[in-house]
Specification:
The structure holds four protein chains of four kinds. By secondary structure, chain A is an alpha/beta fold. Chain A has six helices and eight strands; from the N terminus they run βββαββαααβαββα. In chain A, strands 5-6-7-3-8 form a five-stranded parallel sheet, with helices on both faces. In chain A, a hairpin with a 2-residue loop joins strand 1 and strand 2. The termini of chain A are far apart. Classes of the chains: A alpha/beta, B mainly alpha, C mainly alpha, D mainly alpha.
Chain lengths: 210, 242, 52, 218
């Protein structure tokens, strides 16, 4: 079953196209890793898919209410405890259960600690636990393994694998190898938008000016 | 041939460069004749003395202060609905002109109020409303300046302009309620032209035309500058990305 | 030539001078910024043409 | 939505700034006014409605820039925007939380400060009524200003410049209501206007705020 399909997508940053002609499909039980140098537009692409910004052209199709997005920042409230942070997102997404997430991300002993007393890696794990409590099948992750040590990366990979195993899907942007052998890799470099004079797609202002 | 063609920046640049000499000459001509006529050739009024000559700068600037805001509202709406860049840039270009017009109306009003009412400033509804309008212009311009991304700035200032228009109107009503004032009613404005004799009326009409044309001239010039600045920004960004 | 303004000379002259001064500043700023941006844009376009 | 409200209230309580600072600021304004205008009871009683309203307005302004800034910095705002609650709801809840933490305490404390300024007896009732009706509009409009300036580094001063002109009608009708109440005059018109403005703001402005947030997150 296709969870997310993208056809001929072009995305813009600051009004200028950065990527064009991006097409892929993500099946249930599969993971796709977006690769590419800094500034190629990985974050922009993911934000567009998450609906935070409009696409310049192309089609994104996915069933409604299937996506959970996780950005660079974890969106944690430092004065709230781990449980309170998770409970909040659980009730926003209407799931309400956080126990599996605590166990899966190995946060059980930290449950009552305030988020500001967590280490960087622990915070990241809490951020990823947030994905589990959303109950959404498609994870869209921007640099999920930043500031994780090797053991935590393995833990993360395990969580993704379990998610895929239960019929979910994941789309990730990352520099480093996650140790997810089954994930497909999509290099974004070939999709870099060309200037309009070379036949690239025109940004909103260039188009109007020419 | 649709009017939206002029929303294309390139088309706008061509048309405006063709039209600029005409409006410039018109503006200078109307203003020179109107102000000269008003200043030198009109008689004193019985109740105002020679201060009646102030209307030739006060009334047109006050009219423009309001009309420019309305124009900004319209262009903001066009931008928000149809996403024509020129429209947003025209709103940006108009704001400082509107602000200066408001300032002129306020200053000439204060100078006029001094001998007429015996005070430089009175918290009269009209004056107060103009002060509030001035604040709206300042806020609008400050928001444009504060935001780097031009499209974001255009969107946010557009929304501010919409909300601000509603509140400017509301303030006008509130201020009226708060203090019934000293100010002349609309006796000197267009809709009550029978109240003002032809001696004053024709030069006033010329001055109003002059202010309108001056606004159009400045608006075209400033919009051209904004389009160039926008294009410059796009080019620089492209260069950085390449 | 100067019209007789009586005791309101300062008022009338003041209004006209203030108006003309403010408009002059606005026009000057408009022209100055216009010229500056035009120069910058021309330079940029020239440079981009040269670099391909 | 309720979860968001409880979270915001809890954050305000934990951070400590929410309830205390606004009230303390209000108290300082009320304390400073007699130093500026002299201690005579008659003068103070005459200007008390205006001072109390102005103080409440400034105290409200003080905490506006924090409505979205913290959520923007730690990334929660991105996540909230992709969450299954409409952004209009999010900004409404944010405004409600701001009102509960700053507006409501001001309403409750205002009569005490009225004593300090020799507010005439009949005005107390109208003071509370006018603040109760008016401060929600201040919070909602402040949320709009905060939404416009959310991504900006030096948004604080700009926020005041944008929001204060929008406060004019509320301030006029609110202070007028108290003044008329104090003098035993007819209070119906300002009362209805104040309530009308607040109702319209609460109903419509969140759409503008949500639009501004969407643009800022783009």
């Amino acid at each position: 079953m296709t969870m997310l399909s993208v056809e001929n997508l072009a995305v813009t940053r600051g009004g200028l196209p950065v990527l064009e002609g991006v097409s892929f499909a993500l099946e249930a039980g599969h993971a796709l890793v977006l690769r590419g140098p800094n500034g190629i537009g990985k974050t922009t692409l993911l934000r567009t898919l998450a609906g935070l910004q409009p696409a310049l052209s192309g089609r994104i199709s996915m069933p409604p209410e299937t996506m959970a997005y996780a950005a660079h920042a974890d969106g944690l409230k430092s004065t709230l405890s781990v449980t309170e942070n998770l409970m909040f997102w659980a009730s926003v997404y209407g799931t309400g259960a956080i126990d599996t997430a605590l166990d899966r991300m190995n946060l059980r002993q930290l449950a009552e600690r305030a988020a500001h007393s967590l280490s960087a890696g622990q915070k990241r794990r809490l951020g990823l636990a947030r994905l589990l409590v959303t109950g959404r099948p498609v994870w869209v992750l921007d640099e999920p393994t930043v500031s994780l040590d090797a053991a935590s990366v393995a833990l993360f990979a395990e969580a993704v694998r379990a998610h895929l195993g239960s019929g979910g899907a994941a789309l990730m942007a990352t520099h480093i190898d996650l140790g997810l052998e089954e994930a497909r890799v999509l290099d974004l470099a070939p999709f870099k938008a060309r200037p309009p004079e070379e036949g690239g797609i025109a940004g909103s202002f260039d188009e109007a000016f020419a | 041939m649709s009017i939206w063609e002029y929303a294309n920046p390139k088309k706008f640049m061509q048309t405006s460069s063709w039209a600029l000499p005409f409006v410039t000459v018109g503006a200078v001509g109307c203003l020179a004749v109107g102000l000269f006529w008003g200043f030198f050739l009109t008689p004193e009024a019985t109740n105002f003395g020679s201060t009646v000559k102030v209307i030739y700068v006060h009334v047109p600037s006050a009219m423009m202060a309001i009309n420019i805001w309305v124009m900004m509202l319209v262009t903001s709406l066009i931008w928000l609905i149809r996403r024509h860049h020129v429209s947003a840039l025209a709103a940006k270009a108009a704001a400082p002109i509107g602000m200066v017009m408001t300032l002129i109306a306020l200053i000439t009003g204060a100078i006029w109020g001094q001998p007429m009412w015996g005070t430089w400033w009175e918290w009269d509804p009209r004056l107060t409303s103009f002060l509030i309008l001035f604040l709206f212009y300042l806020g609008y311009m400050a928001l444009w300046e504060a935001i780097d991304n031009p499209d974001t700035a255009a969107d946010l200032t557009g929304v501010l302009c919409l909300v601000g228009s509603v509140f400017a109107l509301l303030s006008r009503y509130a201020v009226n309620f708060w203090n019934q004032g000293l100010h002349q009613g609309a006796t000197l404005s267009l809709d009550k032209q029978e109240n003002i004799s032809d001696v004053y009326w024709f030069p006033l009409l010329l001055c109003i035309a002059g202010f309108v044309l001056l606004f159009v001239t400045l608006l075209l010039l400033r919009t051209r500058t904004e389009i160039r600045a926008r294009r410059l920004k796009a080019l620089e960004q492209r260069e950085r990305m390449a | 030539m100067m019209p007789e303004l009586g005791k309101y000379t300062v008022t009338v002259m003041g209004s006209y001078i203030a108006t003309i001064a403010l408009l002059a500043v606005l026009v000057a700023l408009t022209l100055w910024k216009g010229a500056r941006v035009k120069r910058a844009l021309d330079a940029q376009e020239e440079r981009m043409k040269k670099n391909g | 939505m309720i979860a968001l409200l409880t979270r915001d209230l809890r954050l305000a309580v934990r951070a400590g700034g929410g309830f205390g600072l606004g009230l303390a600021f209000f108290l300082i304004v009320v304390t400073l006014v007699p130093f500026g205008v002299g201690p005579e009871g008659g003068v103070l009683a005459r200007i008390a409605p205006g001072i109390l309203w102005l103080g409440a307005l400034l105290a409200c302004l003080l905490s506006l820039d924090r409505i979205f800034a913290l959520d923007f910095e730690d990334g929660s705002l991105d996540l909230l925007a992709t969450a299954p609650i409409p952004l209009e709801g999010v900004v409404s809840v944010k405004a409600a939380a701001h009102w509960l933490t700053t507006g409501l305490p001001l309403v409750l404390a205002a009569p005490v400060f009225g004593v300090l300024l020799h507010l005439p007896q009949p005005a107390y009732f109208w003071l509370v009524v006018s603040l109760m009706l008016g401060t929600p509009a201040l919070s909602v409009l402040g949320t709009f200003g905060a939404a416009l300036t959310v991504g900006l580094k030096r948004g604080g001063l700009l926020l005041s410049l944008l929001v204060l002109p929008l406060y004019v009608p509320t301030l006029i009708f609110g202070a007028e209501l108290v003044r008329r109440g104090a003098n035993g005059m007819d209070t119906q018109v300002p009362l209805l206007m104040l309530a009308g403005i607040t109702a319209a703001c609460v109903a419509v402005v969140p759409f503008a705020s949500a639009a501004a947030i969407r643009v800022n997150l783009r």
